[in-house]
Amino acid sequence: YKQEAPKTPPHIILHYCTFKTTWDWVILILTFYTAIMVPYNVSFKTKQNNVTWLVLDSVVDVIFLVDIVLNFHTTFVGPGGEVISDPKLIRMNYLKTWFVIDLLSCLPYDIINAFENVDE
């Protein structure tokens, strides 16, 4: 049988829709990329900054920032197993749970570091 999708405001994304599932896979892959490249860059970074890597890392940071925006508009499952689609409840839930971690993950540390190394 097929279950009917809950009625949601137009700007709200269902957490189980195809777009969100695909997006989450992209975020997972980029998280693995970051988990490998950040320690590598810290360990083996030379004085010569490679612009290509800086641009690529900046694109990843922007994608993580877009993920934050999407999370403010994505339904979640409440404590009783119901799908929560009220925008205010979604915002409050995200702010109380993953927002700080997500925000810290998308700060452009590479760009900040590049500007700090200009003086050296």
UniProtKB/TrEMBL annotation:
Keyword Disulfide bond applies: no
Gene3D superfamilies: 1.10.287.70
One cellular component (GO) term of this entry: membrane
One Pfam family named in its UniProt record: Ion_trans
Domain of life: Eukaryota
Keywords carried by this UniProt record: Membrane, Transmembrane, Transmembrane helix
Membrane topology, record value: Multi-pass membrane protein
Subcellular location: Membrane
Principal place of residence: membrane
Regions that span the bilayer: 25-44
Entry keyword Heme: no
PANTHER family the record matches: POTASSIUM VOLTAGE-GATED CHANNEL SUBFAMILY H MEMBER 5, VOLTAGE AND LIGAND GATED POTASSIUM CHANNEL
Name assigned to this protein: Ion transport domain-containing protein
Phylogenetic lineage: Eukaryota, Metazoa, Chordata, Craniata, Vertebrata
